[in-house]
Every structure is written in structure tokens, then in C-alpha cells.
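Subject: Beta-lactamase domain protein structure
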Amino acid sequence: MFFKQYSNADGTLSYFYGCGSKGSAVAVDVVAGDERWFLDAAQKAAVRIDFVIDTHVHADHLSGGKKLAELAGGLYCLHESDVGKVHFPILGLKDGEVLESGNVLTKVLHTPGHTADSICLLVSDLRRSADPWFVLTGDTLFVGGVGRPDLGGAPEEMAGRIFDSIHNKLLTLPDDLEIFPGHAAGSVCGAGLSGKPSSTMGFEKRWDPYLSMTDRDAFIRELTANIPEQPAEMARIVAANLGAAA
């Protein structure tokens, strides 16, 4: 298995991984303008990009996912709830679905809260073990924080959904599992984000203040009291990522 993390100046983190021996790769949360980096990386690794996944419809930056999928001949993927909302064809991913990329498996976890369509990706390398090796947590869980709950409106409701997603999906994962988030420090998609671009579930359970909260109402109060300013030009960015902008 190969794995690469690509960092942007605004704190956005993208990912490229897959099975070199079977020549199959996955690109996750590609930022517009970075498509060439992924194409070059695929060429160097002698792999095809079979799946291009956005962990949600982004509100802080333009996605390069659709364009990369077109250039690479892969499938552009979002959660199934986005089918009919976006103005172009996608592969709608279901909770619990597993994508195969040679010996690498990517299991979809629907984790709504930051947005209704948010997903995390649980990745295994069968050449090592069927057990998951790491999870890409998108904007649901960060190193030192969690996603903001206000981008879809109704912050209290969405904060509650983040709590449920964390407790029902992510906190059930092994402590030694590595986590790789969609953003690090510098992003407006969450408060209190660390500059470290990865962690483990066990470390975050001990030190992420939101993960130690077991009272749902207290979690909602705390998360909604610390919401950053909304991203600049958010409406235009979301419309463009949905394919609705001219």
C-alpha cells in the first residue's frame, strides 16, 4: 500500500492512497488547482485513479474532485444524500459500503453533523491485515477538535448529530487506529485545531476536549459557543461545488 498526504496553505489536507501491486488508487478531498499533483503522483506510482471522493460538499474551498475524476477516468464519489443535489453524475456512497482498490479496502462511515452528507473513510490493507489501519475523518473529527456545526443551518441540531456520529461511529474504533483529518490549524472549519496533521483515536480520546464530553447537551452548548466566522464567499463556493454556479 502507498499513502500520501498533501497539505495546502489554508490548512486543507488531501489524500492519495491505494494498491501499487494492483495499480488502483483513491484520491480524497482534492482542492481545485491540485489536480496535476494527483495525476503526476499516479503516473509515478504506475496506478490508475479509480475513485475520487469528497468527504462532503465543501464550503471553504473549491473542490477539484469532479475535474480530477474526469481527467483520470475515475468515479467521482459523494455520500448518497447528494444524489439529486449536485448537478452532475456521482457515485452515491452508502453507509457501510466498501470500495475495493486492489488489496486496499475503503469502508464508508456516514458521520453527519458538520454537514448532513459528511463521511469518514476507514481504510484497510489486506496485505497486512483485514483490520483497519487508519481512518480519514474529513471535517467530522480533527486533531484537537471537531467540525463546526453551523454550515447547514440549525447549529444546535447539527452539533447533536456530530455528537452522535462521534459516539456511535468513531469512538467505537480501536485506540491504536491512526486518524487523518481534512484540515489542520489555519482552517475555518473548526475551532482549536492542532497543527499536527495526524493522531490516533486513543490520543484524541484522552486529549481532545470534545471527545471527553459524555453529556450530549453540554457538548452542544460548548460546540455552538465556539463557532468561527463563516468562510468567505461560502454561498458561491457551495454553489460551485454543487455544479450550480455559472
